[in-house]
Design a protein that fits this description.
- The protein is mainly beta.
- The protein has a single domain, classed as OB fold (Dihydrolipoamide Acetyltransferase, E2P) (Beta Barrel).
- Helix content is 10%, strand content 43%.
- The chain has 3 helices and 11 strands, in the order βββββαββββαββα.
- It has a 6-stranded mixed beta sheet with strand order 8-1-2-11-10-9. A 5-stranded mixed beta sheet has the order 3-6-7-5-4.
- A hairpin with a 2-residue loop joins β6 and β7 (99-105).
C-alpha cells in the first residue's frame, strides 16, 4: 500500500535565471517588499471601521469597490514600534490566501526588478523567520520580502471581514 506524504514548504520565489518584480516600501529606514503578483493597488489611507474582537494589529476594515477589506498594521504585526496613521499613510492592497487585505506602510518606494539569483530564502539565512519569505540583495541594499499569506490566519481574516450584529 502506498501512502502520499506531503511536506509543507514554501514555493520557490522564482527560478534562479528569472527576474522577480517587487513592490518595495519603507517601514522606518528598512526596505520591505511584496512580490508584485500579490499586489492589487496602492491607495492613500481611508477611514476604517474597527472590527469587534479583531487582533490589535487589524486596524479595521473598509469598503473597496463593494468588497470588505481588512487593514493590517504591518508595523504591529512584525513587532516594530507603533507609528500613528495619518493622511500620508499608504495602503498596499494585496492578495493573500485568495483574499484581499490592505497593509499600512510608511511610504511606497518603487517597483524593483531583481534577479532571482540575488534572493535568498530564510532557510538559507538561518532559523525560520516569521512573515519573511526571502531577502533580496542589490549591492549593499537588503530588501526583506514579506510573505502575505502569513500576515492573517484564516480565522483572523474571517473575524476581520465579518461585521457582527449588535443586539438592538
Amino acid at each position: 500500500m502506498l501512502t502520499e506524504m506531503r511536506v509543507e514548504t514554501k514555493p520557490v520565489i522564482a527560478r534562479k535565471n528569472d527576474d522577480v518584480q517587487l513592490l518595495t516600501f519603507k517601514l522606518d529606514d528598512q526596505e520591505y517588499a511584496l512580490n508584485i503578483a500579490h499586489v492589487v493597488q496602492v491607495i492613500r489611507m481611508v477611514a476604517v471601521t474597527r472590527a469587534p474582537k479583531a487582533p490589535d494589529y487589524v486596524e479595521g476594515m473598509f469598503n473597496l469597490r463593494g468588497k470588505v477589506v481588512p487593514v493590517v498594521d504591518i508595523r504591529k504585526r512584525c513587532g516594530l514600534p507603533p507609528k500613528p496613521c495619518g493622511l500620508n499613510t499608504q495602503l498596499v492592497v494585496a492578495r493573500a490566501n485568495g483574499r484581499t487585505l490592505a497593509l499600512t506602510v510608511d511610504a511606497v518606494s518603487e517597483v524593483l526588478t531583481m534577479p532571482a539569483a540575488n534572493i535568498e530564502t530564510p532557510d538559507d539565512i538561518g532559523p525560520e523567520m516569521q512573515h519573511l519569505r526571502a531577502v533580496g540583495k542589490l549591492g549593499d541594499r537588503l530588501v526583506l520580502i514579506l510573505d502575505p499569506d502569513t500576515l492573517l490566519t484564516e480565522a483572523e481574516m474571517r473575524l476581520a471581514t465579518t461585521a457582527q450584529r449588535m443586539p438592538e
